[in-house]
Design brief:
The structure is a single chain. It is built from 18 helices and five strands. It is mostly helical and 438 residues long. The protein folds into two domains: 198 residues, Preprotein translocase SecY subunit (Orthogonal Bundle); 183 residues, Orthogonal Bundle (Preprotein translocase SecY subunit), CATH 1.10.3370.10. A three-stranded antiparallel sheet has the order 4-1-5. A two-stranded antiparallel ribbon has the order 2-3. Helix 7 packs across helix 8 and helix 10 packs across helix 18. The chain is globular.
Amino acid sequence: MASGLYNIGKIPELKRRILFTLLMLAVYRIGCFIPTPGIDAEALMAFFARQQRTIFGLFDMFSGGALERLSVFALGIMPYISAAIIMELLKVVIPAIDKLYKEGEAGIKKIKQYTRYGTVIIAAIQALGISIALEGMGGLEGGAGAPVVAHPGWAFRLLTIITLTSGTAFIMWQGEMITERGIGNGISLIIFAGIVARLPSAIIKSGELIRAGELSPLVMLLLVLMMIAVVGAIVFVERGQRRIPVQYARRVVGRRMLGGQTTHLPLKLNVSGVIPPIFASSLLMFPATISSFIRVEWVKNIVDAITPGHVLHDVLYVALIIFFCYFYTAVTFNPVDVAENLKKWGGYIPGIRPGRSTADYLDRILSRLTLSGALYVSAVCVLPTILIARFNVPFYFGGTALLIVVGVAMDTMAQIESHMLTRHYEGFMKKRLGRVRR
């Protein structure tokens, strides 16, 4: 590992990419502390102290605390992710968009352009909703006390829309620049930075609880060991894949004989990634979000029934994760298209007829993998949350945040390893321990 880090300095291009990435992430973190004008910061912080179990708490986790400060980056990168998911869904409904995906690089550029437009529209709508909600919000429970907005009105709303939308557009540009000129996926690294930024304060709070006697050192040690075990399990499963053997028939092109080689089609165990727990968490937190603005008895009863730690919440959470795993996998991976592409290029799965039979075979395998992946994601999201809710740990562990952090770290390290190996330098892992799985 040490020699691998030392070898990074011997590759000027890789060193420039890493420094550029770190610089862009530093700019992002600085922007998270620049406040939006017209906000009472203390009243807003008091409100968010009660919103950890609502959708605001989820978004604030992804933004690294920028939302609770209502900084210029308060919306974070979530509008871009929402726009990208909407484009994926529209691909299934609108044939013209599906055609763009199949046109290669030119089509992908248009898709990215439409995604940027959608990001700005979604960010503007969210910023308008936030500005209206802030105007009716008080520093104390029920809306009493110091108002969050000193001078409400359309001047404040327009200023908030321009500020937050511009901040999201800037983060989107940062993510694209990191992907192009830095190392790793820029959008994922920005989310990663927002989540990890809250870790130091969580460690400090844990130390204070231990000193105060509210948290036993033995319990904290057990929690740390459990965290290490969960991270190891995530790394093991995320790298797991089912390799479908593919044989290409020999064919003559001009004077050359092409084909005849054997390769494989890799299918990941967790095809859908972290999208299902994000969707599931958002849906379950929606009633709690509504109840923070309106005082209706039946809404309060629903919120109490689906509060984390209750059996109904855990059952619904697992059911929604499984549903969204199947749904998102069906949207992003089409066995019929894969079978047609294999048939077009002379490829086939040994023992399976090309065409429809291949599509049915891939669909059966993908369904089983998706079920396994959904159960794995459910376990990571639910089990640590249940255990830690009983120990009153002052920071969120497990679930979506942990999947994102570990997954992004693995992808980034794999890209660094790839840069080093292409220039014949030894990577982070010794040869006897194996290389990054090709």
